[in-house]
């Protein structure tokens, strides 16, 4: 516990230090002052040249509407928004944008540093590894309700806000944070279709340095998590959670499902890892899969531009693997990140109650008493 506290303190120190080091002297003073999101400096109106709003399958009431913007009117049946839509609505005061980039350890990419180099204007940094359960050794497990509420409140997010989450790959870790908000009862959350790569490919501006407000909020979120897990008082809580247990599965629920088969189990890992012919990236984890589960690698939910496939294309993918969309489905992966991409795709198909096994294969494969199945790859002629 002490080491966790130290690591998060160092995170905040590096965040502030890195920011201060890269700023001109005259820009250091605002570091000590907070300002609300709607007062941030944004690119001039000339930058906002693309006025196509939402994708054609978003709520028609939002297209071309001249009424005041409100996230209350946004459709929650559709889990993604386009870069054009976000660009047109970026400066609305009840819209919060989060950079939730996270990468596999072997990629050797630092999401915080990349955020500071380039992010969508006004976006805040959401630390996937940091806003997590401090009582387990498993990576980025769901935090407690109190811890999540404290961290999100420190980021300046309220229940009335709409939240758009993106990442540096297109659709990857953003889906995890989309799922986290939904687990804690916040449905007005969407993933940016195509993420930062699509934003930049569309010619939209990025910020190349973190604002003083972003620095303070990211540090405050980190500190709030630590305080909750140390039993200390936190600042004002502006975000109230409503835990949705049906969206989260535990090891025991998955174990029971291997016998009862109440839910179709879909694994988002690569076919080689699922079959057990490729080693797991984390040491001490057996290779293979949960007996009775089926494999649909998360990449099959996306097209070449890393945007979510159409409903017809998604339906075909699941049906090809023998997944009936008429029955219950649950998802898992390596550490509970890419399983959320399966949940995102299933949400587009109207299945909004898909649980994710939070511990996923990292937990299951590390146990001594959990059954593991392997598959023999089909030989090529």
UniProtKB/TrEMBL annotation:
Database matches in InterPro entries: Rhodanese-like_dom, Rhodanese-like_dom_sf, Thiosulphate_STrfase_CS, TST/MPST-like
GO molecular function annotations of the record: 3-mercaptopyruvate sulfurtransferase activity; thiosulfate-cyanide sulfurtransferase activity
The protein, known as: Sulfurtransferase
Residues of the Rhodanese domain: 91-208, 259-373
GO CC annotation, single: mitochondrion
Single GO biological process annotation from the record: embryo development ending in seed dormancy
Record keywords: Repeat, Transferase
SUPFAM superfamilies, A to Z: Rhodanese/Cell cycle control phosphatase
Reaction catalysed by this enzyme: thiosulfate + hydrogen cyanide = thiocyanate + sulfite + 2 H(+); 2-oxo-3-sulfanylpropanoate + [thioredoxin]-dithiol = [thioredoxin]-disulfide + hydrogen sulfide + pyruvate + H(+)
UniProt cross-references to Pfam families, sorted A to Z: Rhodanese
Keyword Cytoplasm (UniProt): no
Protein task: Catalyzes the transfer of a sulfur ion from a donor to cyanide or to other thiol compounds. Substrate preference is 3-mercaptopyruvate > thiosulfate. Involved in embryo and seed development.
Organism annotation: Lactuca saligna
């Amino acid at each position: 516990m002490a080491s966790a506290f130290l690591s998060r303190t160092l995170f905040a120190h590096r965040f502030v230090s890195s920011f201060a080091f890269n700023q001109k002297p005259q820009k250091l003073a605002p570091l000590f002052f907070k300002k609300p999101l709607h007062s941030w400096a944004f690119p001039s109106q000339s930058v906002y040249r693309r006025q196509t709003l939402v994708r054609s399958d978003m709520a028609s009431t939002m297209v071309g509407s001249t009424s005041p913007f409100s996230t209350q009117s946004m459709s929650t049946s559709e889990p993604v928004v386009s870069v054009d839509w976000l660009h047109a609505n970026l400066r609305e005061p009840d819209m919060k944008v989060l950079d939730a980039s996270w990468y596999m350890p072997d990629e050797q990419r630092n999401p915080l540093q990349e955020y500071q180099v380039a992010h969508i204007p006004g976006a805040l940094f959401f630390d996937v590894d940091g806003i997590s359960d401090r009582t387990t050794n498993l990576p980025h497990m769901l935090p407690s309700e109190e811890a999540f509420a404290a961290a999100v409140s420190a980021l300046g997010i309220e229940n009335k806000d709409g939240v758009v989450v993106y990442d540096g790959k297109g659709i990857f870790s953003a889906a995890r944070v989309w799922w986290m908000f939904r687990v804690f009862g916040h449905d007005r959350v969407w993933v940016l279709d195509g993420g930062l790569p699509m934003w930049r490919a569309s010619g939209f501006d990025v910020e190349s340095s973190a604002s003083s407000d972003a620095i303070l909020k990211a540090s405050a979120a980190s500190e709030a998590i630590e305080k909750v897990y140390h039993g200390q008082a936190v600042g004002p809580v502006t975000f109230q959670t409503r835990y949705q247990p049906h969206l989260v599965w535990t090891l025991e629920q998955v174990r029971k499902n291997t016998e009862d088969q109440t839910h179709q189990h879909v694994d988002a890992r690569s076919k080689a890892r699922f079959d057990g012919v490729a080693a797991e990236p984390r040491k001490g984890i057996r290779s293979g899969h949960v007996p009775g589960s089926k494999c649909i690698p998360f990449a099959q939910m996306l097209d070449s531009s890393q945007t979510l496939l159409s409903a017809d294309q998604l339906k075909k993918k699941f049906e090809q693997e023998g997944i009936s969309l008429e029955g219950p489905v649950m998802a898992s992966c390596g550490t509970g990140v890419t399983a959320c991409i399966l949940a995102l795709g299933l949400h587009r198909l109207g299945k909004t109650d898909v649980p994710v096994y939070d511990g996923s294969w990292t937990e299951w494969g590390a146990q001594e008493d959990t059954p593991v199945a392997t598959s023999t790859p089909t030989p090529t002629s």
